[in-house]
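Suppose a colleague, Dr. K., hands you the sequence of a protein chain of 108 amino acids and asks what its three-dimensional shape might be. Before reaching for any lab equipment, you can write down a predicted structure in token form. Begin with the sequence itself:
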Amino acid sequence: MGELSGAGLSPNLASNWGLRLDLRRRSVVDSNVLSLRSWSSHPGTVKRAEGVTKEIEEEIEKVGRGVKKEAVKVEKKAEKVEREVKEGAVKAKKVVRRKSKPKKKKES
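The predicted structure, expressed as tokens, is then:
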């Protein structure tokens, strides 16, 4: 973290760039700080990070839409199954009522 602060970078930005962060590490190596500074000052770096972020956000939206569609399908299927279960329960009650009535004996 000392090298990031020495280079003037936030941990979030470094993470977005795909840098591995060791939160326990406290040592600062000057050559690493210089490398981070030169890398972060490169003109394409910020654009690349923004582009990656935009791609990720688009992918998240796309996945979210797919999840919503699947959720609607599952809800419809659940409603259908629920109707079938209720119909089955009604039929079962009718069968039980028929069987539970005592039969009349024929008088001869």
